[in-house]
Design brief:
Layout: H1 2-40, H2 51-77, H3 85-101
């Protein structure tokens, strides 16, 4: 009788082993999955940009643009001295005098 009882006990243990193995195997997988999810979901908190410095930068850029536009407009109004009428006439007169001397 001891041998059929032992065989029955071994059969019962053999039948339960796959279920125990699956139960033991499921725990580490879920733990590692939870650990991976927690590492993936890190929240990055970035500092707010300094608002005062942004306003200063914007004002500086606006001033630079205004200055650039004013210098471009002023440069367009002033003619180069080599293109002035008086200079052109004097050069022509000098060249005529040189040509007549020869």
């Amino acid at each position: 009788m001891s041998s059929p009882a032992v065989v029955a006990a071994l059969a019962a243990v053999a039948a339960l082993l796959p279920a125990l193995a699956v139960a033991q195997e499921a725990s580490p997988r879920t733990d590692t999955q939870l650990q991976m999810e927690t590492t993936r979901r890190r929240v990055i908190v970035r500092p707010d940009p300094p608002v005062a410095q942004a306003f200063e930068d914007a004002a500086r850029v606006a001033d630079e643009l205004t200055l650039r536009r004013l210098t471009e407009q002023a440069g367009a109004r002033v003619r180069a001295p080599q293109l002035d009428e008086d200079v052109t006439r004097s050069l022509q007169t000098q060249n005529l005098r040189r040509a007549l001397r020869r």
